Amino acid sequence: MGVKGINKKSHQNLIEALDRLEEIQRNNGLPSDAQQIALFKDELNQLLEHYEAILEEVIMQVATYDRLAMQIKLQFVNRKLRTLKNIVPKGTESFSKLKKCISLLNAC
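Above: the chain sequence. Below: its structure as tokens.
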């Protein structure tokens, strides 16, 4: 299941449509939904702000994860694999596992 983000342009369009609806009602002497419109706009804006805060948190979390993963890959696993490559006898099951591990690391 994919995640769909909030489209800012769609948000702005909906807010503008609410504003215009309110204006049309006011200009034509129709009963006003101004209070309901204000509540809708406020709730939409709060939800968008909350979404953007969560999105920023996710961005920071991904960056933190990427930094740690790169550090582990470069400073720990690569070093260990190079050492093992010189120690583990070729043609053994352990060497096959070592090659598989190197392939997995290269695919990251």
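The mean pLDDT is 93.
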